[in-house]
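Most newcomers find our protein records easier to grasp once they have seen one. Nothing more is needed to start thinking about how sequence determines fold. Here is such a record, shown just as it appears in the course material:
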Amino acid sequence: MKISVIGMGYVGLSNATMLSTKYDVICHDIDESKLELIEKRRSPIKDKLISEFFKNKKLKLKTSVKINSEISKSDFIIISTPTNFQTSTNMFDTNSIDKILRKLSMMKSTSVIIIKSTLPVGYTAQVNDRFKNLKIYFSPEFLREGRALYDNLFPSRIIIGSKDKYSLKFVNIIKSVVRKRNIKTVYMPSSEAESVKLFSNSYLASRVAFFNELDSYCLGNNLDPKSIIMGVSSDPRIGEGYNNPSFGFGGYCLPKDTKQLRSSFGQIPNSLVKSLTLSNLQRKQFVVSDILKHKEKNIGIYMLAMKKDSDNFRESSIIDIIRLLKKNGRNVFIHEPLIKDKKSIFGYPIINNFDLFIKKTKLVVTNRASKKLNKVSNKVYTRDIFGEN
């Protein structure tokens, strides 16, 4: 059994790592530096468990700088390239997937192709019509940055957009390498599977937005948000997930997926989905107005990543906070140890000497609290109540 994985981000690399514990896996990415690290068994992304697997497991893993005949003849090909939301088209940019499928079609690939990139509803059906010599399926991924391999090994469920011999075989392959048993598996048409991903992430965004608005209400009325959130979350119908206030939902997935879902509605009423983007923007504006009450001119930003275990700050909510602070005439300094080769980012200076950073700034703003900031807690601003992601 040979499996190829195209795209070495969180989704692709975690799948490749997991599958290579049992099967021969070929990794491909347009960024050759990622492939070089993988060959040296060094993870190009921050994920503790992937690094542990690279160090301690005998993985049947190799790389390829090109989509060659060996890849095209794999039993399965997993595609996990980015699909950014384009405001110009009001749609996900699927160009990277289109190019891969065109190439595989020209190579007369016999592989079963599983797309794990998040897609606009109807995309899989469209490409199956366009590339009739290919077998294309969609199976969404549900994982967290920094814990991608763990979430793959212990999946909440498996969703796949078909039920035939090929999709059944793929599900069996996944079940043969995960560590969780009795996984709920749901087979459905591809458009329904694409919808599951968009609605799942939009629901998570709505929870983040709800508890952020609860926190804003408390700030505006001098109430204790922690006790209210604990009281609300004690209802088992509500629960504690995604209830820790933040500067807004961000990261690579939630902002773009809510926009894509909103676009997919077209003229169908969608007041709730439509409100998510506005709620998120208003939360950031409200947080900045609260920060400005401190009347400090020099403000430090501690870490850009959305989550503690992540090295990714694409679409991080704190980036909008920085821009709004700058717009209001504040001097902004950034402490982000993940950035080692630059003296500035987004036009703002980076100070990665922690003591100098603390000395330079009068107020330290952070989306998520850190033990490292405990000794200067008197000058820290955060809306993190529970110390969790």
User: Anything to note?
Assistant: The first strand starts at residue 2 and ends at 6. The chain has a mean pLDDT of 95. The chain is about 40% helix and 15% strand.
